[in-house]
What does this fold into?
Amino acid sequence: MVRVTPESAGWTYVGFEVVQAAGRLERSEPDRETCVVVLSGTCDLTAGDVTGRGLGRSDVFDGPPTALYVPPGMSWAAEGDAQLALCMAPAEGRLAPRLLTSPKLLTRGEGMEERRVANILMEDEAAESLLVTEVITPRGHWSSYPPHKHDTDDPPRETYLEETYYHRLRPDDGFAFQRVYSADRTLDEAIAVRDGDVVLVPRGYHPVAAGARHDLYYLNVMAGPLREWRISSDPAYG
It folds into this structure.
C-alpha cells in the first residue's frame, strides 16, 4: 500500500512499508532489522521461536499498539487479516526477536498542543538503529510542537535522524497539515495530509496540525548513525 526505501527517499537509513496481510505473509530482510506494527485487524505474528496470537486492534485509534521486533536475516510471518506497518533500518543482528506488547504511554504538551504518545520501540526498548513511536493528536490540536529538528550529528545536543510520518485520520475523509522547513528556508514545504499519506523528513523542523474536525494519528520511524533521540527546537517558538 505504501513503500519507502532508502533509495527512493534519497537517504541512508529508514525504510517503511504498509501492507495488507490477508492469509499468510512471510518476509525476511538480510541486513535490516524490522519492527512490525499491527495497525488494524487481527493476526498471529511469528519470528524464530517467538509467537504472538490474536494480536491487533480495530483501527489505529483503538487502544495501544502491538508489534514484533525481528533482527536481520530472520524470517517472520503474519497470519490473519491485518494491516501492518513495516519499519526498517540497518542492523547487524545482535538482538533476538521479541514481542512488543506494553508500549510506554505518555501525554505530551499542554492545551492545544496536547497529544498522546505510545513509544513502541524508543530508547527504553533495545534495537540497533530503529526508533518507532505513534502519536494521536486530537482534532484542532498541534503536534510535533514546538517545531523541532534532528538533522545535525552533534550529540548530546542533537542527533541526525531520518524520519517518516505515516498519517491516518478519523473520520478518514479529512485532512491535516504538516510543514517541513529548514532555518535558512532552502527547504520549506507545507503539505495537506490525507488519510494514508507518508511525509518524509530528511532534515529541518516538522510541526503538524490536525484539522478542526478530524483526529490525527501518525506513526514515526526514525534511524541514523546514533540511536538517540536528541532534538533542537526552533528558537522562534521556544
User: Anything to note?
Assistant: The chain has a mean pLDDT of 97. The longest strand covers residues 32-47.
